[in-house]
Design brief:
- The complex is a heterodimer.
- Chain A is of the alpha/beta class.
- Chain A has nine helices and 13 strands.
- In chain A, α3 packs antiparallel against α4, α3 packs parallel to α5 and α5 packs parallel to α6.
- Chain B is mainly alpha-helical.
- The interface between A and B is medium-sized, with 30 and 24 residues.
């Protein structure tokens, strides 16, 4: 089963384009990272999947359901945390968990309480008075206590200090490790994606530039540095090329079974790191734009 | 949802119920006090001495002033309640982004919105009934005579008042949902309520049923007085009519222009023998025609207006829920 399937998914806001003709097959039971520059459409994609927004055209199927037509059926099975981690500031933490219990068919109160207490968050504390990190933990507790099949996280670690960031990612990983859950998170920092995700989607200008298993992606890409007049044949697609006076560096993608590029004097060929690959795809746009 | 509605709207709910109880008690107590004060100062039995009478009325009036303000407040209650409760009802979530929290829990936006709107409206309507039952005490507090306009408490009692409250909240909820902002919701809702409420009062209410016409050829300045005191053989109009319009006609039944009536009135010089303007006008072939609603149409009109506002509320309420459901969050 696919967690998310999008066909020709398009979303416009007035005259601006958030997503244009996106086709996506995101597998279930994976941790999927969505990266892209600000305004690439990451938030829109997640909000469409959560049923908060509706597509301009094209279709989206989430857990075999339409987010709009089958909302009553789908909502109990997915969780969503928006970028600003909305919670009611005037509720206490205990009341926030009660809100989750009241509004969800499936709810694990012991799990929710254990989670917030593990982070030494007082149940009687007002949400308004919590630190950003504690707030994020409460939001995650509400999202996970409904035992969702799919969790959609819009920049879950944004604005968190390094320790809180790590704690939150570990929490999410532990939840995934319990099994049966698909997680889709957007992120700005590639390091976070690299740490927790096993599937990657690169969005650029509202289009899907790359989507696939991270291991396969890294296996497909090469970093090459050498004399600037190097060429690589039809089997390799140049994702990004940067040239200095004599030397050049390339990120290449194998588009068909290819002869390995030989390293020799002055030419270095090695697997590209995830960060290099992502940056190559993102930079490609910048150079076109300039 | 019940828990959430109570937790998030308990101040509004308590405010409505306590406020309504206070207003109702104020009306009952004020009316009771009015009766006692009028007896104490002899307001109703001072016909013999006009100067003593004036002082009695003034003294009684002073004692009752707070309750007269309460009666005036009644006219504005639906607008205030509507704006303050309806305006933020959905706009608070939309403005603060918390709709993205509640709309991704296990229930649909439609269910969430319906539960919120209906529970708040139910409480508000119950509170409004509590006030509307006693709105009629305003007559006692103001010391209106028994034969006065039977429609004078139309705005502050009965089913119409209840539906004003319901409509006020729905209108502001709609405006708040449309604008996604609390303050525009409150303000535009208030404006919408005011325009519709006054438009109906002045545009539609006088003619829920075609007004009855009566021709008067003699009488005092104010038709009601003549009819009530029946000092003169007035037209066959019972006590308590609501006069919705007055014009002047000639013996053929054609409407006489305002200027001609004015000119005749200016030319009229009261004498000891004839002090009555209408008699003078009649002698010149001009009679006054009044359009009025008789008192027995009061409650039917109340129900018609209540139904009208119910239909408006249902329309706006459904539009609000559709907006919540159909629009991007």
């Amino acid at each position: 089963m696919l967690a998310v399937k999008a066909v020709g998914l398009t979303k416009h806001f007035g005259r601006s384009v958030a997503l244009q003709d996106c086709d996506l097959d995101l597998p279930a039971q994976r941790v999927i990272g969505v990266v892209g520059p600000n305004g690439a459409g990451k938030t829109t994609l997640l909000q469409l999947a959560a049923g908060l927004r509706y597509p301009t055209s094209g279709s989206m199927v989430v857990l075999d359901r339409s987010p709009r037509a089958d909302a009553a059926d789908l909502l109990p099975r997915l969780a969503f945390i928006a970028q600003d981690r909305p919670l009611y500031g005037d509720l206490t933490v205990a009341e926030t968990l009660e809100l989750g219990r009241q509004l969800n068919v499936r709810w694990d109160p012991a799990y929710a309480r254990a989670r917030v207490q593990r982070f030494r968050i007082g149940l009687d504390a007002r949400v308004r008075g919590l630190s950003t990190g504690q707030r994020a933990q409460v939001a995650v507790a509400v999202a996970l206590a409904k035992r969702p099949e799919l969790v959609l996280l819009d920049e879950p670690v944004a604005n968190l200090d390094p320790l809180a960031r790590l704690e939150l990612l570990e929490e999410l990983m532990a939840a995934v490790a319990e099994g049966g859950m698909t997680m889709i998170m957007s992120a700005n920092a590639i390091a976070d994606i690299d740490r927790v995700c096993d599937y990657l989607v690169i969005l650029l200008d509202g289009k899907v530039r790359l989507a696939g298993d991270i291991e396969e992606i890294t296996a497909q890409h090469r970093f090459v540095s050498g004399p600037r007049e190097l060429s690589f044949g039809d089997a390799w697609e140049t994702v990004d090329a940067r040239a200095a006076e004599r030397q050049g560096t390339w990120i290449l993608r194998a588009v068909m079974p290819a002869e390995p590029i030989a390293s020799n004097d002055g030419t270095v060929v090695r697997p590209a790191s995830l960060e290099e690959i992502v940056l190559a795809y993102l930079r490609a746009r910048v150079e076109v734009a300039v | 949802m019940t828990w959430l509605v109570w937790r998030q709207h308990r101040y509004e709910i308590l405010g409505l119920l306590i406020g309504a109880a206070l207003v109702a008690v104020g009306l009952v107590y004020g009316a009771d006090l009015a009766v006692r004060v009028r007896t104490q100062f002899g307001v109703d039995s001072c016909n013999a001495l006009p100067s003593a009478c004036v002082s009695a009325v003034v003294q009684a009036g002073d004692r009752l002033q707070p309750f007269r303000y309460l009666v005036i407040l009644l006219f504005f209650l639906p607008a205030i309640a509507g704006s303050f409760i309806g305006g933020p009802l959905f706009a608070r979530d939309l403005e603060h982004g918390t709709h993205r929290l509640v709309w991704t829990q296990g229930i649909t936006r439609m269910r969430w919105g319906t539960a919120k709107l209906l529970s708040v409206l139910a409480v508000a309507a119950a509170a409004a009934v509590g006030v509307a039952l006693f709105g009629g005490r305003a007559s006692t507090i103001n010391g209106t005579s028994a034969g006065a306009n039977a429609f004078q408490n139309f705005d502050i009692e009965g089913p119409a008042f209840v539906m004003y409250v319901v409509f006020g909240i729905t209108a502001a909820a709609f405006a708040g949902t449309l604008s996604r902002r609390i303050l525009p919701g409150m303000f535009v809702g208030l404006l919408l309520f005011g325009v519709v409420r006054l438009g109906v009062e002045f545009g539609l209410r006088p003619s829920y049923e075609p007004p009855i016409t009566a021709i008067r050829t003699s009488g005092g300045v104010f038709p009601q007085e003549v009819i009530i005191t029946s000092r003169t053989p007035g037209p066959a109009v019972g006590p308590g009519p609501w006069i919705v319009r007055i014009d002047f006609i000639d013996p053929e039944g054609r409407v006489v222009p305002e200027e001609r009536v004015q000119a005749l009135q200016n030319a009229f010089r009261p004498t000891a023998a004839s002090r009555d303007t209408l008699t003078y006008l009649a002698a010149n072939g001009v009679s006054q025609r009044i359009f009025y609603q008789p008192p027995d149409r009061y409650w039917p009109s109340q129900w018609i207006e209540a139904l009208l506002f119910l239909v408006l509320s249902v329309t706006l309420g459904a539009s609000t829920l559709l907006l919540l459901d159909r629009r991007d969050a």
